[in-house]
Amino acid sequence: MKACDLDDIPVNPSRQESLAHLQARLGRRRFLAGGLGAGAVGFLGGMLPVARALAAAGDEPAAPMLGFKPVPMSAADTVVVPEGYAHAVINRWGDPLRVGAPAFKGDAGEGAAAQEQQIGYNHDGMHFFPIDGKDGVSGSSTEGLLVTNHEYVTPHYFFPAGVQPGGQAWTLDWVRKAQYAQGVSVTHIRLDAQGRWRLVEDSPYNRNIHADTPIDLIGPAAGHALLRTRADPGGRRARGTFGNCGNGWTPWNTYLTCEENFTDYFGIGGRDAKATDYPDAAYREHMQRYKGGDKTSDPDYAWDLHDERFDWTREPNEYNRHGWIVEIDPFDPQAAPRKLTALGRFKHENAALSLAPDGHVVVYMGDDQQSEYLYKFVSEQAFRPGDSSHNRQLLERGVLYVARFDVGADGRGVGRWIPLTLDTATSGGGRLGALFNEDMGELLIRTRQAADAVGATPMDRPEWVAVHPDRREAYVTLTNNSARGSGKPRWPGGPAHPGADAANPRDKNIYGQIVRWRETGEKASNREFTWDIFLLAGNPGVYGQGDPRRGSRHITPDNTFNSPDGLGFDPQGRLWIQTDGKYSNSGDYAGQGNNQMLVADPASGELRRFLTGPRGCEVTGITWTPDQRFVFINIQHPGEGPTLAEAQARPLSASRWPDGDQATRPRPATVVIWKRDGGVVGS
Known about the structure:
Strand order of the largest sheet: 13-14-16-17-18-23-22-21-20
Structural class: alpha+beta
Largest sheet: 9 strands, antiparallel
Number of strands: 30
Distance between the termini: 29 Å
Helix content: 10-25%
Strand content: 25-35%
Radius of gyration: 23 Å
């Protein structure tokens, strides 16, 4: 997520037969040792209990779930890891992406041509694909493709002093520079003889997929009239992906990147907002539901001033071509990425892919804005092991659902997945089809309006979802929602933000919580689930300790945190929690320090802080090598906080990370962490 959106404008286990298949392919001991890798947990969850049972019989000794000494809160301008661990920085913003790429200039004075050949800015979700893998997780632990999202740019540090979006020196080249720094980077990395991860600079896999890259529109909305533009009258070939936040991966070896705050980039070309109106009432309603009442672009970007497709008064449908999940084949640089319209259009945070007992693919997704919704997608057809051509079409057709959270007669959490189909009844007694011209493409383009109409539960900014490796349960970070209970409209002309409810138990929620739910039934299309609150984040000195109904009993002054964001399970079932919240270390946030990464044992509720980041950063993105001896995380927007003028006048006043005394400005980067004894990270 983008840091300034902290208070943003409102507007499964698999079939048993796969176990034998995988054990035969990987070898029994390698399978038991975690050779499937961390990413496998959502897809291959049901297999691990069998593996553990075999291990308990004598192949593998039992080990404590959390085997590291927790690190204390920190306000230092550095990355801190536990005793017995080490870390290194790789893939900094501006590092060369391939042979011949220009080196980073300390004054950030490179233009667009240089940036297109360099590592992008503000790293977020990512995944490690073994170089010899076929399923996205198994294979080499010493060489692979690290695919990384780049969400947005921080103009304070991204441009040289004196260059300001929309300012006098602003040009199309500076717009292109910002566009080329967003999207996704594919980097071929290898562990060298000295134990250091290095970029393979001459690899054909290294590339940027950015805001100007051609991308195919796939699924029910492809070709729709609302997606057609002058440049693409067929509505099937979009340009670019940006605002790329969290991610996912598929067992057919592709990467999913999620377009989140796409609304920030669209404006009216510098015109007077009071004198510029929407094309018609329907367009106004649609724009306001996603963007709020602001007609202009975010002043940090101002792309609409020099790139006409971001001026919605000139190209009104370009806006609808963004806000999707994009599928990328990292091993085929010639294959066009694909925007998957069947998964809905909203501010996607991440995509947690799982496989239901009936073999259908399930994708869980959050819409990261105040009082928005939680979704799941179920594929129309079932997964076929080894049939890549079939499996690559699974995300093109299916049913999208939105969640409603309730409380049963016994006081326990119960919920329901509501299908967003043309025949679904609305809360007012009609049909969704009647609201969307009996057109599924239009419904998916206006996903938020469909979810509104069926009475989904507004949540406290649903961010990352992670699926437990052993049980049919999933977890979602609800990062915060200061507008809950405020009485303010969720969007112009819309209803007010609701007050506290069972799943979102605090008005003006500045801390956030983690909710988990458990699917019932054997089919992916099952609509019922049960739920509870796993952790209620925040300062225990304000909200207190020991309320087991709210999951806060394990939050103490030693492990307190706010604004949970990134989330992931490793194959042993450890839940890794990353934060992107306030780091003022005073008032309601006293004792919490810089943003951090914690690890929880879902069975016992034990929670320990594993890492703290440098000043002003977000800790985000997580992926492992298949042997779990290396974990990769990202440090986004180090040093963020000062105003543009303050930061450009004194660019190192907030942070010198990661270059230290050699720094000219802070730089987002990836951090690789390992255990000095060569063991499994976290154990």
